[in-house]
Amino acid sequence: MNKIIYLLFFTLIISSCTTIHKTTRQPSNIIQLQYADFDLSEQQTAKATSVTILGIDFARLFLRKTGAYESAISASSIPILGQYLADQTTSYALYRLIDENDGADFVFYPQIEKKTTCPVLGLCLINKITDVEVKAKLGTFK
């Protein structure tokens, strides 16, 4: 029995896990825009709603529509100037905003109103309804 313990101990000592991280320095990506470089539209509005049950959004779970706001998209793929709430429902609303306004190149400082309702005993783990309304001006480059 002692030999097995020594063998396991020896095996643990000589086995190792190696992790190597290589990074490179990112270049400075600063672009200075003047107001004369782009045009802004009037303020536009878009809404999105998601309903999750046990943390799963069944309405969008099996959709395979590429490019539609219902598909699993991220707001990181939408050009946004300004800050935004990083959640999936906000991403749907931002995508709908830029998709419904053809010709828009970017979203300019979005204002986001988010309302979350937990109808089952107030527990968001069971059922959660999230409504997001995004208001923003859209920009186009000249």
Any overview of this molecule?
There is one protein chain. By secondary structure, this protein is of the alpha+beta class. Helices cover about 20% and strands about 30% of the residues. It has one domain (about 35-140). It is built from 3 helices and 4 strands; from the N terminus they run αβαβαββ. A 4-stranded mixed sheet has the order 1-4-3-2, covered by helices on one side. It is flat. The termini are far apart. The relative contact order is 0.22.
From the structure above, extract its key features.
142 residues, alpha+beta, 21% helix
Portion of residues in beta strands equals 25-35%
Tell me about the biggest sheet? 4 strands, mixed
The spatial strand order of the largest sheet comes to 1-4-3-2
The level of helicity is 10-25%
Contiguous uncertain segments of 5+ residues:
65-72
How many strand units?
A: 4
Straight-line N-to-C gap: 79 Å
Given the C-alpha coordinates, what overall shape results? flat
Average predicted local confidence, pLDDT: 76
Strand and helix map with partners:
Blueprint: H1 2-14, E1 38-53, H2 58-61, E2 80-81, H3 88-100, E3 106-117, E4 127-141
Parallel strand pairs: 2-3
Antiparallel strand pairs: 1-4, 3-4
Short summary of the structure?
The protein has helices at 2-14, 58-61, 88-100; strands at residues 38-53, 80-81, 106-117, 127-141. The protein has 142 residues and is α+β, with helices and mostly antiparallel strands.
